[in-house]
Design brief:
The protein is built from seven helices and 19 strands. By secondary structure, the protein is an alpha+beta fold. It folds into two domains: 131 residues, no CATH class; 178 residues, Glucose Permease (Domain IIA) (Distorted Sandwich), CATH 2.70.70.10. Strands 4, 6, 7, 8, 10, 12 and 13 form a seven-stranded antiparallel β-sheet that branches. A hairpin with a 4-residue loop joins strand 2 and strand 3.
Length: 353
């Protein structure tokens, strides 16, 4: 269970556009963070040639190309898709896809799941790109096979082959004609994932350590690649700073999330030397942590009880666009309450029960 959630008077209807905090968040860019060349993860050149996504994505059984994109695009908008599904282009062998899958940037192989049945991702690889800030990871799922020499801990270069595109999956079957690469780009919520997982009593083992899908929050790969290609943004840092804020929550706690230690670029200001009494956390509409502001222990805005969570401001448009994630629930009259998706993110970030 999460601690008590309190909504500040006027918070849910506080004109998002007028909030200095949120305006500042939208304006921040990181000019020092040098761009690293991006490589498209498959041999297809449809994206690079500027073709519409309908030409090169792999739709679900619905046949709707939008179902291959990021967001609330499945089950009539009621199911979130964390990544981008890219179709094969090379000749098939006995009906199976043969396209290689490439690392999108230089990095380190952090995790490989070789047992397809252990995950809905099937066989998948996670690469941490420690040459960019923040050090995002990419995830390559549904692979048919892993390339020789690709092992956990290995360094890989952008454009290097990681494996072969496929249709591996645990718990369901992807037919041959819908083989594809599922690509994610994102951040990892906590090093303490196993303790959280054990408290959930899911009834099945966690086979993936901290690289379980529950512990990763992504952002839109197609939007990221597009804006990098056009020069609208020049780095991961700048891209994250440009993502609209969906909600700001204030958490009263002296805990320092390991998230901010791993991604210090997302700290808005230094942690007070005398210790932290709480945090204001900016979340995207789908729950990606974007900025952390540490609060001193004597900050007058903090609650008197450890673990109280207040909703400071929201953007109803962002939350509605990603409503299937249930980050913040908007009730009658604009009342805001923490949703089950928001609860999970904060549980993982702060180690709450």
């Amino acid at each position: 269970m999460l601690p008590c959630v309190a909504v500040r008077n006027g918070g849910s209807g506080s004109g998002y556009g007028r909030s200095p905090l949120l305006l500042a968040a939208a304006a921040v860019l990181a000019p020092w963070a040098a761009a690293q060349p991006l490589h498209w993860p498959t041999p297809g050149d449809g994206f690079e040639e500027g073709e519409p996504y309908e030409n090169w994505v792999q739709a679900t059984a619905s046949g709707n190309p939008e179902s291959a994109l990021f967001g609330c695009v499945r089950n009539n908008g009621n199911r979130f898709h964390e990544g981008l599904d890219i179709a094969p282009v090379l000749p098939r062998r006995r009906g199976e896809a043969t396209d290689p899958v490439f690392a999108v940037m230089d990095g380190r192989v952090a995790y490989i799941n070789r047992a397809a049945g252990n995950s809905g991702y099937g066989r998948y690889i996670v690469v941490v790109h420690d040459g960019v800030r923040p050090a995002v990871h990419t995830l390559y799922a549904h692979l048919a096979s892993i390339a020789e020499g690709i092992e956990e801990g290995a360094r890989v270069e952008g454009g290097q082959t990681l494996g072969i595109m496929g249709r591996s999956a645990g718990g369901y079957t992807i037919p041959r004609h819908r083989a594809h690469l599922h690509l994610e780009v994102g951040l990892r919520l906590t090093d303490g994932f196993q303790a959280w997982y054990d408290r959930q009593e899911f009834g099945s083992a966690n086979h993936h350590g901290v690289w379980s899908g529950f512990n990763m929050v992504g952002f839109d790969p197609l939007d990221f690649f597009t804006r990098m290609r056009t020069g609208e943004v020049s780095s991961v840092d700048a891209y994250l700073a440009s993502i609209p804020v969906g909600a700001v929550v204030r958490v009263t706690t002296d805990r320092i999330p390991d998230f901010v230690r791993r991604y210090p670029r997302l700290l808005w200001s230094p942690v007070p030397e005398e210790g932290v009494g709480g945090w204001e956390v900016m979340l995207s509409g789908w729950g990606l942590p974007l900025r952390f502001i540490p609060l001193s222990m004597d900050d007058p805005g903090l609650a008197s009880t450890e673990g109280v969570i207040e909703i400071i401001a929201v953007d109803p448009g962002q939350l509605d666009h990603y409503r299937c994630r249930h980050i913040i629930s908007m009730g009658a009259g604009g009342a805001a309450a923490l949703g089950r998706g928001g609860s999970r993110v904060l549980q993982l970030l702060f180690g709450f029960n």
